């Protein structure tokens, strides 16, 4: 994710999924989750439960 200033493409998990879906050769790309950027984009990582919920949200997309 990007830092989530609101005008950047790819700052939500859904946007990352959409970008990935548009790539023809998906085996040539990957998604790297940087927890600092994930948190800055508004995803809660402050507790174990919040982290698990965030990772479940990522897994859904």
From TrEMBL:
The keyword GTP-binding does not apply. One of its GO terms (biological process) is base-excision repair. Transmembrane segments: none annotated. InterPro entries: AP_endonuc_2, AP_endonuc_F2_Zn_BS, Xyl_isomerase-like_sf, Xyl_isomerase-like_TIM-brl. Belongs to the AP endonuclease 2 family. Pfam families: AP_endonuc_2 (PF01261). Residues 1-50 form the Xylose isomerase-like TIM barrel domain. SUPFAM superfamilies: Xylose isomerase-like. This is Xylose isomerase-like TIM barrel domain-containing protein. Keywords: DNA damage, DNA repair, Hydrolase, Metal-binding, Zinc. It comes from marine sediment metagenome. Its cofactor is Zn(2+). GO terms for molecular function: DNA binding; DNA-(apurinic or apyrimidinic site) endonuclease activity; phosphoric diester hydrolase activity; zinc ion binding.
